[in-house]
Specification:
Layout (H helix, E strand, L loop, with lengths): L2 E6 L7 H4 L2 H8 L3 E6 L13 E2 L9 E2 L1 H17 L6 E5 L8 H7 L4 E6 L4 E2 L1 H7 L2 E3 L10 H12 L35 E2 L2 E2 L9 H19 L1 H9 L5 H8 L1
Parallel strand pairs: 1-2, 1-6, 4-7, 5-6, 5-8
Antiparallel strand pairs: 3-4, 9-10
Helix pairs in contact: 3-5, 7-8
Bound molecules: 6-chloroguanine.
Length: about 250
């Protein structure tokens, strides 16, 4: 069924980036997912529509006030209820969390509905997080100006895994990190012309020998993983998705 995603954000127009282009747009048209943004500014009651205030204890920057976010979350939960999602989890995007992995994306993808809470400024009043947030997620060890890009990263990564979103030709089962690829990085890709800028396509790919091509791709994927992400190769061996006979391909 249609995945329901609501987003609490001061910048709803940023989400046009995933709603209006590419695979995520097509999947939205096909109702693989639905998106509704809520602006906490629309849940204020003062003349200036204030969403932030100075931090208790002093210090630089501003903090997002709890109440406008609280009311916006309620609106998202109510909308999901109307569309058949009973208790959507609230996800807070923050660099103060554990960075998500492919496995985390696949778990999140199982939820029928999610509410993404995007912070700006120095952060959000901790009591709102304590009271309303179920999951905190980071997308890596660097700091973004707000949670919006991180929420879009998560939504993009999830939507492409939904059944029927990618055609068989560009199936997600062959992506880097996919468990069906044994936790290896993807192999390189080539298309016409056969020679470009003086560079030839590897002969193995031109042979028409499907077993030979598969073997070449696996070897190059393993070499790439060894040189760029030895940590992934080690994990693949530990999880027994690769074994010593696979390693022999590397030295061959
Ligand atoms: Cl989820 N939010 C922000 N603001 N910065 C980040 C992040 C999230 N993940 C990595 N950096």
């Amino acid at each position: 069924m249609t995945k329901q995603y609501d987003v609490i954000t001061l910048f709803p127009e940023m989400f046009d980036a995933i709603a209006d282009s590419g695979i995520t747009r097509r999947a939205l048209d096909e109702k693989a997912w639905a998106l509704k943004c809520w602006n906490p500014r629309d849940f204020t009651s003062d003349k200036h529509r204030t969403v932030d205030d100075r931090p208790f204890g002093g210090g630089p920057g501003m903090v997002m006030k709890a109440e406008p976010l609280n009311a916006a979350i309620d609106a998202g939960i109510q909308r999901q209820k109307n569309d058949g999602v009973d208790k959507p989890k609230v996800v807070y995007l923050t660099p103060q969390a554990k960075p998500i992995t492919d496995e985390g994306i696949r778990q999140l993808c199982e939820e029928s509905g999610l509410i993404f809470l995007c912070g700006r400024y120095e952060g959000i009043d901790e009591r709102l997080i304590q009271s309303r947030v179920d999951i905190e997620i980071s997308i890596g060890d660097y700091v973004l100006s707000g949670g919006e890009l991180a929420a879009m990263v998560l939504i993009d990564a999830m939507v492409r895994l939904l059944p029927g979103v990618l055609n068989t030709a560009d199936s997600a089962t062959e992506d880097s990190f996919s468990p069906t690829r044994g936790g290896l990085l993807d192999h390189p890709h080539y298309t016409r012309p056969e020679v470009w800028n003086g560079l030839e396509v590897p002969q193995e790919l031109m042979s028409g020998n499907h077993a030979g091509i598969a073997k070449w791709r696996k070897r190059v994927a393993m070499e790439r993983t060894l040189s760029r992400r030895p940590d992934l190769l080690e994990a693949a061996l530990k999880n027994a998705v690769l074994d010593q006979s696979d390693l022999k391909i590397l030295s061959a």
